[in-house]
Predict the 3D structure of the following.
Amino acid sequence: MSAKSRFTAQDIIGAAFHIVQTQGAEKCSARAIAGALRSSTMPIYSCIKSMKDLQDAIVKKAIDLLIEYETQTRTGITALDMGIGYILFAKREHHLFRMLFFSKNMDSDTASSTRYREYAFDTLMERLSDFEPMEGLTPDEKRDILYKMWIFNHGLAVLLNNAIIQDLDEQEITRLLLDTGLYVMEGVRTRDVLYGREDVKALVGTATEGTPTP
């Protein structure tokens, strides 16, 4: 009978997650995990069914942490708090953000990724049902606003994550997201009128459908 491993699957997942969090996904190998545990690679292969299972576990932990960022109450406005949390995650968890959204080896259709997308949109749609600034808007218009803000938030997160623009503190991020959200909501309310103008039709045609959502 072989000796029982002194490491658990959670020990291995935790060590792998720490490597990704501090050094990047490209540095996470069986050898690196073994080094962090001061062990051989044998416990890794005996406790984890496959490297794909390990990758999925790391992704789940990263998404759980992202959701923690997004669910922290900062302003009391759910949509705004989620946006702030998302961008702060990109700023502070540099490697985890890159793993989730830029790694070529990541499977975007993992159960964890699907869970995050459902959480991000479905939860917000539910919580915005009584949000006063969106009063009078249809569910499709609300979803359109959320999708447009997701595009803006992700773009800003990428810019900050890659240090392409000057760093912003939490107060500056809050003001920028609040201003942009108000602009988008006003744009959705007045879009039909604007698209009916002849000069606008000449630029964009007659399409007035909202942006498709995932």
Q: What stands out?
A: The longest helix spans residues 170-195. Residues 59-204 form one domain. The chain has two domains: 1-48, 59-204.
